[in-house]
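re: ur question from earlier - yeah i can do the single chain one, its not a big deal. heres the input i used so u can compare w yours
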Amino acid sequence: MKSFSEAKWIWHNSYRGTNVYVNFEDEFTLGDAPSACSIKISCDRNYALYINGGFVDSGQYSDYEDLKYYDELDITPHVKPGKNTLLAVVYYQGVSCSTYRRGEPGLIFEVSADGEVVCASSERTVAYKNSAFADGDQIEWVSGQLGIGFHYDATREGERTGEKPADIVEKTMDIRPRPIEKLTVDPHAKASIINKGVFFDTAAGTPAQKMQAAALATQYLCGGEGLPSDEGVALSKEPTAAGPEPDGVFAIVDLGEENTGFISLDIDVPCDCDIYIGWGEHLADLRVRSFVGGRNFAVKYRARAGRNRFENPLFRCGLRYLQLHIYAERCTIYYAGIRPTLYPLPEPAKPPVDDYLHRKIYEVSCRTLLLCMHEHYEDCPWREQALYTMDSRNQMLCGYYAYGETKFPRASLELMAHSIRDDNMLELCSPAEVAITIPSFSAIFMVQLQEYLDFSGDTDFAMQTLPVAERIAGEFIRRAENEGGLIKCFGEQKYWNFYEWQSGLAGTIGGFVPEEERTYDAPLNAFVSLGLRSLSKICGKLGLAEKEKYYRDMHEKLNQAIDAAFFDDDRGCYASFLRDGKKWHYSELTNSLVVCAGAVPDERLESVLAALAGGQLLTVTLSHSIFKYDALMQNREKYAQFVLDSIAELWGKMLYSGATSFWETIDGESAFANAGSLCHGWSAIPIYIYFKYFGG
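and the output i got, formated as C-alpha cells:
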C-alpha cells in the first residue's frame, strides 16, 4: 500500500554534492480550523519542519536508500483557517560515515486535513539553497563516526540562492512508517555560567583547534550565573592586566549533568561577529576539550549585530559543558545550552536492590541507557552516536529489564540485519558504510536476536531475520571446517579482529595478517559458539527441528575444539591465542566467554572461576564485565557477593568521581589518548545483573 497518495520525491538538482542544506517552501489553504491536520515527511539524512514560521519537529529516522521510513506528525496546533505556509529545511550529507549510509538526495511530504490531502511535494514546491549554512567538503568533520559539523551565518538569513521550482527525482515509493516513537523536544535545559573572561588566540585551524589552544584569562570564576536569564549575563573585554589585546570574550556553561540535544543560543552582540561553540563532557583541561585526536567538537556561528536567537534542530550533541568564544568587545548572554532531545520511555522499573549505593548505580545506569537511545541505540552521544551490535546487546538486555520495551530493540535489530554484506558479515555500524568490520560483532548479533525473541515472543520478526543470522553462521562454519574445527582470525584487510579495549585483545584496524601469522583466537571462537547456540534456540522456538539440531551440533563441536585447543593445564584456565602449538595471553574476557559458551567441562569449571575471581588474569573492561559476571554466577552461592562488590567498586568509583552517566572505560576521559567517552550505553550492565540474579 502506498503511504503517499499525491506526493512526489523532490530536490534542487543544483545542490547534490556533499554537505548541503536546501529549503523547500509550499503553502495550503484551509477553510475552517480542521479537527485533525497531519503531515507525512521523509528525506535523506535530516529535516527540520516549520509551519507558519513556527518549529514543528525534526529528525529523519535513520534508514537506507532501499529501506525508507517516514514520520507522521500532528500539525493541528500549528495551522489556522486561511493560508498556511510550510518550510522544510533539509540537510543532505552526501557522504557515508558510521551514522549514515549515503543515499540519493530527496524530500517527500504530504499534508492532510481531516483525511483530505491539501498539500503535497511536487514541481510546484519552491526550492532554494539555505545560504546561512556553509556547504561543501571544506567544513570540518566532528568525527569520522559522527559526520560533519556546521558553520552558520545569521547575516545571510533570508537569501534565496538558486530559487526555482523543485525538481522531481526518482526514489522508492515503498516508504514505511517510523518503527519507533519520535524524540521529545523539551524546553531549554537549565544551565549556569561558571567561568567567564577573555581569550587570546594562539593557533590557527578549525574553530575546535583554536578553542583548544587559546589562552584564557578568567575575569570571574563563579558558582554559577543561571540561564535562561531575563536580564542576561554581561561579558566584556575589560583588561585584567597590561598586555596584548584579547581576541574576544569567553564563557563556560555547565548544564549540571550529561544530556543530549540541540545547541541553543540567545545572545546580544554589538556588531557582526563570529562565535565559536564548543561542547564536551568534562573540564579536565580547565576548559571544554574541543579538539582531540583530529576530532572537532565545535561549530561556528556568525552573529549579526543585535539580539540573536539560534537553534539547529538538524544537529544533536551529547555534552555537559558548552564553551563560547565570542569575537566582540562585549556581549550579553540570555541563554546558552541545549533543547534536550530524548526518547520517550516509561518510568524504569523499581530496582531489585535495597542498598543505597546500588540503587544509585541503577538510577544512573537507567539515565545512561536513555542518553544513548535516539533514532537507534548509540554507543555514546558525544563522540560517535553509532549503532554497534556488541554495544547494543548490553543496552537491549538492560532495557528489557528496566523498561520492558521491545519496539526499540526490534527496530535496531532490523537496521543491523539490513546491513548484511556480500561476505556474510554485518557492517560495523548501521546504517552506515565502513571500510572494515569486526567478525565477533556479527557473531553476537545471533545472541541479540535470540534474546529479543525470548523477551518479546515475536516469532514473526525472528523468522523474517533468520536468513541473515544463518548467513552469518554459515560463514563462520565454513571457515571452521576449512581449519579443522576452529576458526582462525580473519586475516583480510577489511576485518578488525577486535574483542575488547584491553592489551592484546584490541586487534589492529584494517591490517592484513599474512597466512603464517594468523592465530586461532579463543574469544572469536567463543563468540561464535554463543551465536550458534542462540541460533539453535531460535530455530527451536520457530519449530525448525532439523536446523535446531544442526546448529546445536555445530555449537557443541566448536566447544569441544575450544576446550581441547586453548586449555592450559599448568594455569588451570584458557589461553586467548594459539599458533603453531604455542598458547599465550590469559585474560578474564577469554575465560568468561569460554564459560558462558558452555565449553568448560564440569571438572574444570571451578578452576576457571577461581582464576576469574583471583585477579591473576588480564582484567576485563566495563563493557565486557557482563560476561565475567554471568560466568561467575554459575556458582551463585560462592560468587554472588563478589559480583555485587565488584559492581560497587567499579561503578561506585565513577559515581564518587562525579559521574552523572557511566563511562566507556574505567579510565574515564583519559582513555583512548584523551578521547574517552563519559556516557556509554554498554556500561549500563548493572541493571541486567541486578534483575537477573538479585531480582527475586
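The two ends are 47 Å apart (CA to CA). not sure if urs matches, ping me
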